[in-house]
Amino acid sequence: MLREILKEKERIVIKIGSSSLTHKETGDINYQKLEQLVRVLSDLKSRGKEIVLVSSGAQAVGRQELRMKAMPNEMPKKQALAAIGQAKLMMAYQKLFSEYGQVCAQVLLTKHTMVKEESRVNAMNTFHELLNMGVIPIVNENDTVATHEIEFGDNDHLSAFVLAMIDAELLIILSDIDGFYTDDPSSNPDAELIEYVEEINDEHFIMGKDTSSSSVGTGGMNAKIDAGRIATQYGAEMVLVNGRDVNVLYDVVDGKNVGTYFKANKRENFSLAEYL
């Protein structure tokens, strides 16, 4: 019954990480998965949902395009791969969405965009116009120029910032784990899935730790918990689920008991600037 409220949410931000878009064996983009994601998002939009997708994967596509065996550690090389991969990734998204009669648009953001009020307002206005036009915005960090963000940033936080900026009602994070556990399930077989979080507190960050089971992603569980803190204090709901099968998005919006549901706890005088 708790999740019945999710059926009513119309403006939804969906974040998918690199680990959910790539083949585990090679780190290359899984184009079958990409096609499935686009099909589900197009169908949700046909239901009347407003969809914003925060998508990782640019560096992975760039590495794949250049046939590099491993992701480099040097910042300029990572940025170059992002420049190559972002264009290729958007081309794939545009082609796939067009097959379902949908139009998508690329929006690249940096923390600098969020911090400066003028640029933040401009970005917000752009999002609102795109949604009014029936377009699906596809968001990523502008890795090519954002030196600090590419090294320390992650799309978990970005998705929460976008949610607050555009007045979205629900954040869905597709991860490589079934939800939020009492401990890291990859190292602790006794870790238990927490299905419902009334309010995020310090204990949740201790349980989450700063870990990620993926070699291609940047956001560990603490990044997801912090994104949930931002989203729920803004006044939105968040659900963390496994992105192994993107059809799970139907279960979330239908209010089914999947993953971990973080209840909205709207904070008075919420200011996005405090979290940047």
Automatic annotation (TrEMBL):
Which of this chain's residues are annotated to bind ATP?
15, 175-176
Asked if Transcription is a keyword of the record, the answer is no
InterPro entries reported in the protein's UniProt record = AceGlu_kinase-like_sf, Asp/Glu/Uridylate_kinase, G5K_ProB, Glu/AcGlu_kinase, Glu_5kinase, Glu_5kinase/COase_Synthase, Glutamate_5-kinase_CS
**Which Pfam family is an annotated match for this chain, by its short name?**
AA_kinase
What's in the keyword line of the UniProt record? Answer: Amino-acid biosynthesis, ATP-binding, Cytoplasm, Kinase, Nucleotide-binding, Proline biosynthesis, Transferase
Identify the domain of life.
Bacteria
What Enzyme Commission number(s) appear in the record? Answer: 2.7.2.11
Tell me the route in metabolism or biology where this protein functions: Amino-acid biosynthesis; L-proline biosynthesis; L-glutamate 5-semialdehyde from L-glutamate: step 1/2
The record places domain Aspartate/glutamate/uridylate kinase at 11-242
Q: What subcellular locations does the record give?
A: Cytoplasm
Molecular function as annotated in GO:
ATP binding; glutamate 5-kinase activity
Name one process (GO BP) from the record: L-proline biosynthetic process
Q: Which reaction does it catalyse?
A: L-glutamate + ATP = L-glutamyl 5-phosphate + ADP
Single GO cellular component term: cytosol
User: Where do the annotations place substrate binding?
Assistant: 56, 143, 155
**Gene3D superfamilies, A to Z:** Acetylglutamate kinase-like
- Family note: Belongs to the glutamate 5-kinase family.
What HAMAP family is this protein classified in? ProB
> What does the UniProt function comment say about this protein?
Catalyzes the transfer of a phosphate group to glutamate to form L-glutamate 5-phosphate.
What protein is this chain from? Answer: Glutamate 5-kinase
